[in-house]
Design a protein that fits this description.
Layout (H helix, E strand, L loop, with lengths): L1 E2 L8 E4 L4 H14 L5 E4 L3 H6 L5 H6 L2 E3 L4 E4 L1 H10 L4 H7 L5 H13 L1 H5 L11
Parallel strand pairs: 2-3
Antiparallel strand pairs: 1-5, 2-4, 4-5
Helix pairs in contact: 4-5
Length: about 130
């Protein structure tokens, strides 16, 4: 886990705001977050590079990140696992995501979906879903 110099006031989710699939998943997270709403910021917001220079543009295109108020940055499946513990409506998912020894499976699944998000959701704005 990476630690950032900037420590946000609340959990902060960094995602690809140009990707249709990513935006739909963030809309779902917003709906499920109720009163414990994290901040959701597109990686294309200029403040992201200023506040979180430890995360490269390529890192952010590969996976969603959650930065907690202590500055700990979790990416991909680890970010989803973290949110499953923080958002009460995701607690049932937490039980499955935290089965001992299962993290490598979730990381592989997350990486597969991230690589194929363009074909899953259709075309994205400005080619934002092209992941190297």
């Amino acid at each position: 886990m990476l630690t950032t110099r900037f420590h946000p006031v609340r959990d902060t989710v960094l995602y690809d705001g140009r990707c249709r699939f990513c935006r739909s998943q963030i809309a779902l997270l917003r709906a499920l977050s109720l009163g414990r709403r994290p901040d959701f910021i597109s990686l294309h917001d200029p403040h992201v590079a200023e506040r979180f220079p430890e995360l490269t543009h390529d890192d952010l295109l590969r996976q969603m990140y959650v930065i907690d108020p202590q500055g700990s940055a979790r990416g991909g499946a680890e970010a989803v696992r973290y949110l499953s513990r923080r958002l009460p409506l995701l607690w049932p998912l937490a039980a499955v995501l935290h089965i001992p020894g299962s993290l490598p499976v979730w990381k592989s699944l997350y990486a597969f979906i991230a690589r194929h998000r363009l074909s899953i959701a259709g075309s994205c704005d400005d080619g934002g879903c092209r992941v190297g």
